[in-house]
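Just wondering, does anyone understand these tokens?
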Amino acid sequence: MLRVNVVVSSISAERFWDVRKPIPPIQINTNINVVGMEKKADDSLEVPFVLSIVYNPSIAQMSLKGNAFVVGEKAEVDKVMKDYEQKKPPAQIIIQSISNVVFIESVLISRTLNIPPPIPLPQIPEAGAKPPVSKPEGRDYSA
């Protein structure tokens, strides 16, 4: 089984919007790029990445850079490297591990800058709205 350790090595974030003005409706674009993949002498992989977050209109920008260190059985590590050399997407566990770390960090940074977080927040239904009915009205004979 592959194990992935993610380390953020560089953070850049800037708020452009005046803090006294209300933030308009925005669109947030996030992009994770795996910059490369390098096999190390101990049969591990080093996977550098960059996360870019752009707000539209331009109220802020954020960039996080780092490395994911992948270890596991030799056959699994070799397969990940071979797939990368064949221009296939990186293994799901690598992308998921990177995403988990960098999005948590970006939410903390967005709080510091007082800007909307780069992930959608859960929506709470209005108090007067009826929940969707999944069963027909009437008698229910299910156990």
Notes: The chain has two helices and five strands. Residues 92 and 98 are 10 Å apart (CA to CA). The longest helix spans residues 92-113. The mean pLDDT is 89.
